[in-house]
Design goal:
The chain is an alpha+beta fold and 281 residues long. The chain has five helices and 18 strands.
């Protein structure tokens, strides 16, 4: 999990808008396996270890369904500590009758599903980084069928919710213009390109992780940004290493005309597709 520690810049929390807070809380506790860290009338923060908020869910007062394709969340991805944990999740999902997608990405093994508002979720485990294949600065990633039988052989059937060591492994965003997104995240925030999927998807990271952020235009090229009250992504948070890094980022963003707003513990910005990024220490 060293890819999700300083000095890397990595996702710590994702905040999503939902249409029914209680329905979502039931789903995220009983199906995904979160615990409630804090709850208010229209907002809840969810945790696995009882201390760290990984997911925040908010029900806007005048909530709207997402009627057409927009930018925003493609999926957020929960990284489990071990392959055994993934096996136990697969068994749990099967017992609950959850409809799943599943892929082997060479660097990782992943499950895909949606919450009740069709917010995308990935639950995955990384292969050991010694098994990743790099071609210069690009990591080899594929999308192939997942060998579920092999994974299940490591399970013990002991599912007690998400394990405490779970982290927010990455976020994958739908953007309207890939070149603009690339410029913002690499030149503005200092991420490095580690994989390209043709002309419509890009994967970026720090510290040679396979990706902390995915960006694509598969269903969102030239799409409008998500409405303020529409279900979907509200914000996501990135961990900053130090003040010098923050100052460099803010300077880069101001040069490119991006929004920079000071907030408690860091600053806020917005990518060209309208995705709100909170950068915090």
């Amino acid at each position: 999990m060293h890819f999700h520690e300083k000095p890397n810049t990595y996702v710590t929390n994702v905040e999503i808008k939902v249409s029914d807070l209680q329905r979502s809380l039931t789903f995220y506790q009983e199906i995904i396996g979160f615990k409630i860290l804090q709850q208010e009338s229209h907002k809840a923060t969810l945790t696995t270890d009882g201390e760290t908020a990984l997911l925040t869910i908010v029900q806007p007062e005048a909530v709207e369904e997402k009627r057409s394709m927009t930018t925003g969340l493609y999926h957020f991805a929960l990284l489990l500590p071990t392959r055994r944990d993934l096996a136990n999740v697969i068994t749990h999902f099967h017992d609950k009758g959850v409809h799943l997608g599943a892929s082997d990405h060479a660097v990782s093994e992943a499950l895909y599903l949606n919450d009740p508002d069709h917010n995308g979720i990935e639950v995955y485990v990384d292969r050991d980084e010694s098994e990743w294949t790099w071609h210069n600065d690009y990591v080899h990633m594929v999308t192939e069928p997942l060998n579920i039988r092999s994974i299940l052989e490591e399970g013990d059937g002991n599912w007690n919710g998400l394990p405490a060591g779970t982290v927010m492994g990455h976020i994958h965003l739908s953007v309207s213009n890939l070149a603009e997104a690339e410029h913002f995240y690499t030149k503005g925030l200092g991420f490095e390109i580690v994989t390209r999927y043709g002309s419509q998807a890009l994967f970026i990271s720090t510290g040679r992780y396979h990706h902390h952020i995915g960006l694509n235009t598969w269903h969102s090229e030239n799409a409008p940004k998500l409405g303020q009250n529409q279900v979907g992504l509200k914000t996501f948070s990135l961990r900053l290493d130090n003040e010098e890094q923050a100052a460099t980022m803010k300077g880069n963003l101001r040069v490119m005309g991006a929004l920079v707003i000071e907030i408690a513990g860091g600053f806020q910005t917005e990518d060209p597709a309208g995705n709100v990024v909170l950068l915090k220490f």
